[in-house]
Every structure is written in structure tokens, then in C-alpha cells.
Design brief:
The chain is an alpha/beta fold and about 180 residues long. It is built from 7 helices and 4 strands, in the order H-E-H-E-H-H-E-H-H-E-H. It has a 4-stranded parallel sheet, sandwiched between helices.
Length: about 180
């Protein structure tokens, strides 16, 4: 994903990447890819800020980040409509947390209902049939812009990690 993002942005790094974080291997891989591209001299600048988004009902990385821990604790009774984000204890939590901190990023949790609303918004406004995981990134973007953590002039990448088609039952009553 890191190589694809760099290529699509003309071999420039974005200012921030908002990633729906279940197992978190996407953050780990992108962080490594950007580091290697920097070392090769193919791109310049600094790593993008990595922002992990998790659901309120399963947020081990968010909690560990907020508490300043290097590893997460298993999340008891994980519940969320987002299958890809229901990961109570990511195996490489220490690498995820390290990448977030090293790049000046953050971690935040969103409600399932916010994800569903964002799925509908993305579908009606852009024709994107996002999964709840991907829709969580839109919720995070709006919140971080409102709080001033991100600015409207920044290049920000949102990742949609799956198809929303298997979740159509969530929005059928809205249309």
C-alpha cells in the first residue's frame, strides 16, 4: 500500500494516512515501505502521520495509545458490526503503536452508528460502496479536521480496506 500511495501521489508522501486498524498490519507495512523509499532516495520528506481508527466496542490500540503503553491489553467482549476491526489483541501491537508515535500520529475510536452513516454518505456523495472499516476513516477525518489535528490544506489518505457489499443490510433501511 505504501508503494502504491507514493506512486499515485507522484512519489510524494501524504501528510497523513487514516487507517482502519484491526490487526494493524497495514500501518506496519506502509511505515516500512515509506522508510525504505526514504532510504533509497526515491522520495523525500518525512513519514506521514499514521492515524489508527478503531470501533468503540473494540479499541485496544486506541486505549494503549491514550494510556502511553507500548503494548495493548486484550479487549474483553469485543463487539462491533465491522468484522475487520473486531481484533481484541493485535499480535504486532507494539509495532503499530511505535509507528503511530514515531510519526506524530494518533489513535481514535468511532461508534458503529457513525460508520453506518459514513457508509451511506460515501455511497450517495461519491458512489463508493465502502465497508464500515473504510467508512470509519471518514468519521475520523471529519473529527480530526474539526479538532484541528489535521488541516484542510494537507494531503490526507483514507483507506477503504474492503467492499461494503457484504454490509448492504446495514444501509438498506436508509435508502
Amino acid at each position: 500500500m505504501g508503494l502504491e500511495i507514493a506512486l499515485q501521489l507522484g512519489w510524494k508522501m501524504p501528510d497523513a494516512i487514516i487507517y482502519p486498524t484491526g490487526g494493524g498490519t497495514g500501518i506496519i507495512g506502509m511505515h516500512k515501505a515509506f522508510q525504505e523509499l526514504l532510504e533509497l532516495g526515491w522520495i523525500e520528506g518525512r513519514q506521514p502521520r499514521f492515524i489508527a481508527v478503531q470501533p468503540e466496542g473494540c479499541q485496544p490500540i486506541v486505549r494503549a495509545f491514550q494510556e502511553g503503553r507500548e503494548t495493548s491489553q486484550p479487549w474483553a467482549n469485543a463487539t462491533t458490526l465491522s468484522d475487520g476491526l473486531r481484533v481484541p489483541h493485535p499480535f504486532a501491537d507494539y509495532l503499530i503503536l511505535s509507528a503511530i508515535r514515531e510519526t506524530g500520529g494518533t489513535a481514535l475510536a468511532v461508534e458503529d452508528s457513525e460508520m453506518v452513516d459514513a457508509m451511506y454518505e460515501m455511497a450517495t456523495a461519491e458512489g463508493i460502496i465502502a465497508c464500515p472499516e473504510g467508512a470509519a476513516t471518514l468519521v475520523a477525518l471529519k473529527r480530526l479536521l474539526k479538532e484541528g489535528f489535521l488541516g484542510p490544506e494537507e494531503t490526507i489518505v483514507l483507506l477503504n480496506t474492503g467492499s461494503g457489499y457484504k454490509y448492504l443490510h446495514l444501509i438498506k433501511d436508509m435508502v
